[in-house]
Amino acid sequence: MAVHTVGAEAVDGLLARAGTAAERVASRTAMTGGSYNALYEVGLTDGTRLVLKVPPPAGSPRLRYEAELLCGEALFYESAATVGVPAPRVVHAEWSEDAGAAPFLLMSHTPGVSWQEAGGSMAGGERDRLREELGGLVARLHTVRGPGFGYPAQRVAPLAERWAPAFEAMTDAVLADAAAFGSWLPLPAGAIRSALAGGAAALAEVAEPALVHFDLWPGNILLDGAPGARAVSGLIDGERMFWGDPLADFASLSLLSAPLEDDPAFLAGYGAAGGRTAFDDAARVRLALYRCYLYLIMLVEVVPRGTRGEHLAWVRDFTAPRLTAALDTVAGGG
Questions:
Q1: How far apart are CA 136 and CA 317, in angstroms?
Q2: Which domains does the chain have, with CATH numbers?
Q3: Phi, psi of 138 (to 5 degrees)
Q4: DSSP secondary structure code for residue 145 in this structure
Q5: How far is the C-alpha of 276 from the C-alpha of 211, rounded, in Å?
Q6: pLDDT tens, position by position, 199-238
Q7: What is the pTM of this model?
């Protein structure tokens, strides 16, 4: 499924709802790289650059947790600002899907290029320095506390007082999506559900709901500056945030690399900013559980996204053995 588009007139209508008159708009340029929301860079006549994000129209196929995703994104950016973590600034947010008007999010433009794009030109010393900086930023995010565990829009389940039932609701939802869409999984859903349930005792150790981005793969980490002197300029696409275990962020952070819980540079920054850097067996079980959840999302979302061909094959080849290995880690107690 191609990312949907929004015409110039509709873009102007959304901007007007945000208090930006059409005569102030100098340009509207569709942005690439996303697989769900439509994104537009908006240039104003005074030189200000904004980003407009618009989810698919009502009734479009999606996973259960994707209902009112912009609630989480706006909350992530507002929360990041309270602890000095660079991220877009919310200009205007209307995320409710029950308001009778199309939801959207208008935010400031963040300078830089993605770590994914810049990584090929990065020397080892700069990479370690940036991983240490990133570790410190992520640890600061994890100091933000929420009102309960789960997704803030509460469309999967109400916020819970305990993490274990909240996480169970999240994994049950994606497995229900797999059944509804007929998604291919490397193991029967019942076997996956039973294996995940084996980690309940480890989940019970999580006492406070922390801010979790859960999509911090290199494409969502922006860097700015000249090669050798780059810095993290922003953490973007916070729409998949939830209140949960800080360790959950290690799943996406390590998606395309070696596990960052074993990376000395990242842990140096994470620990210096107050993050916990000791991982006992229960922590290792939780890390495996969060990787299972991420792999399940990747396997299931390809159906409503309409993914075909080489990318579909890559998703299955990449996630299936990793999901099986993570489930084995849960079963083995870490």
A1: 33
A2: 8-108 (3.30.200.20), 113-331 (3.90.1200.10)
A3: -65, -40
A4: B
A5: 15
A6: 999 999 999 999 999 999 999 999 999 999 999 999 999 9
A7: 0.96
Over 50: is that where the pLDDT of 1 sits? no
Specify the DSSP class assigned to residue 248: G
How far CA 173 is from CA of 62, 66, 169, 244, 322, in Å, comes to 12, 11, 6, 16, 20
Return the structure tokens found at 27.
């340009």
With a pLDDT cut of 90, the percent of the chain lying above it is 90
CA distance 73 to 100: 20
In the predicted structure, residue 53 carries a pLDDT above the cut 70: yes
C-alpha distance across the termini of the chain, in Å? 38
DSSP assignment of 107-121, as one string?
A: EE---SEEHHHHGGG
Residue 8, CB half-sphere, CA atoms under 13 Å: how many?
7
Report pLDDT digits (tens) over 58-85: 889 999 999 999 999 999 999 999 999 9
Residue where the block lists tokens 């102007």: 12
Tens of pLDDT, residues 114-141 = 999 997 788 879 999 999 999 999 999 9
Alpha-carbon distance of 288 to 331, in angstroms, equals 10
Query: What is the identity of the amino acid at 267?
Result: L
Residue showing tokens 């229960």: 282
Strand order in the sheet with 231-235: 113-114, 221-224, 231-235
- What does the DSSP assignment read for 297-324? HHHHHHHHHT--HHHHHHHHHHHHHHHH
H or E element: which one contains 234?
Answer: strand 231-235
pLDDT at residue 267 above 80?
yes
Answer positive or negative: Cα dihedral of 60, 296, 313, 263. positive
